[in-house]
Amino acid sequence: MANPIHFPFHLAIPVRNIAESKAFYIDTLGCQPGRSSDHWIDLDLYGHQLVCHLDQSLGDEGKVNLINNDVDDHGVPVPHFGVVLDMQRWQDLADKLKSAGIEFIIEPYIRFKDMPGEQATLFFLDPSGNALEFKAFKDISQLFNAN
């Protein structure tokens, strides 16, 4: 199979506070800021466009509603989003998040150990309750493998 062409994704998420979200995504995750207003901010998340939009219905302490689905004996929050990294960048991010005192929903670990699709994964919430997952595959060719 020829190498696929990759295009950056665009994802807009609700947040309860633009300044709080800006600080979290820039200071904690290392995103670069883009355009912004009082009601939204564009962020560069590993080359992808993440937009945080103010959702006043969340209130000052509100959180996005999530459900959990069982995957590999863990309650995976839905919806969630993130980026597939290489193993070194994933480990660097996991170490950075641990150092920053991030509370994980699912601690960094290896999922599907010794099986096709083996991957490193971790889950945490942003201040508004949006769930993020960052992962890395032992063999990136397994990303879409259905076996």
Automatic annotation (TrEMBL):
Transmembrane segments: none annotated. SUPFAM superfamilies: Glyoxalase/Bleomycin resistance protein/Dihydroxybiphenyl dioxygenase. Gene3D superfamilies: 2,3-Dihydroxybiphenyl 1,2-Dioxygenase, domain 1. Residues 7-137 form the VOC domain. This is VOC domain-containing protein.
